C-alpha cells in the first residue's frame, strides 16, 4: 500500500521508517529539508505539497505538532482537501473539538478521518510498538487494519466517533505530565538529602513508585542529556489542552494544574526546546517547589 506521511518529526520519521520496513511505499512532506533528506535516505519519496502526497497514497498520516499545522496541511494552499479524497489518519495530539471539525471536512470530501493519537516516543514509532488510540468509522478501521497493525504494538478501539481518541490521549498525557513532575521532584529532594539520585531512580523503577515516563526520561535527565526526544513545549501544549478539555466538561485536576505550572516555568527559563525530562533541573535549582511544598 502507498502511504503518505506529513510531518517528519520525532514521531513522523519513525512512522515513515517503520512503514518502509514493512514494505509500504511511503511519500512524505515536511516544512524542513533536513527531516525530508533523512526520510529520503530511508527510502521515502519526498513530494512538494500535502496535495501531492494525498494524490499519491491510499492513506495519509498527519503527524504535525498542533491543530494549526493540521489545518494548514488539510486546508491551506496545496492542502490535502484540494486533492482527490483520501482517508486521513491524524496522529497529532490536538483538541477533540478540532478533530471533530477536521472529520467533518474530510467526510465532506467523501473520505474518512481516523482519530489515531499515539504514545510511546520515537523508538517505539520506529519499532512499530506504539500504543495507538483509535476512533473512526468501522469501515475505515477495517480498510486500514494492516497498516494499523504495522504501526502499533497495541491498538485501543475507543469508539466510532473521531474526537474520542483525542480525549483519551489528553487524559493519558495529563497523567504522564503529573508523573514526570512528581518523579523529578522526588529525585531532586532525595539528592538534596544526600542520596544517590541514580540509585534512587533504580529503586523507584523496581518498586511501587514506578511509572513509564519517569523510567524513560529521568535516567537521561540525571546524565544531563536534554536532547529533545519529547519537547518541553509540546508536553506543555498537551497539558494546556487537557486542562481546557476538563474545564469544558466541568472538571478540574489540581495535580495537572501544578504540573502545567512547572512546565510553563521550564519553558520560560530557556528549556522550551529541551527534552521534557529537563524539568528535573528546575527542582535541582529550587526554581520550583515540590508539589504541595
Automatic annotation (TrEMBL):
The active site is at residue 169. SUPFAM superfamilies: 6-phosphogluconate dehydrogenase C-terminal domain-like (SSF48179), NAD(P)-binding Rossmann-fold domains (SSF51735). Keywords: NAD, Oxidoreductase. InterPro entries: 6-PGluconate_DH-like_C_sf, 6PGD_dom2, 6PGDH_NADP-bd, HIBADH-like_NADP-bd, HIBADH-related, NAD(P)-bd_dom_sf. Its EC number is 1.1.1.31. One of its GO terms (molecular function) is NAD binding. Residues 2-156 form the 6-phosphogluconate dehydrogenase NADP-binding domain. Residues 163-282 form the 3-hydroxyisobutyrate dehydrogenase-like NAD-binding domain. This is 3-hydroxyisobutyrate dehydrogenase. It comes from Sphaerotilus sulfidivorans.
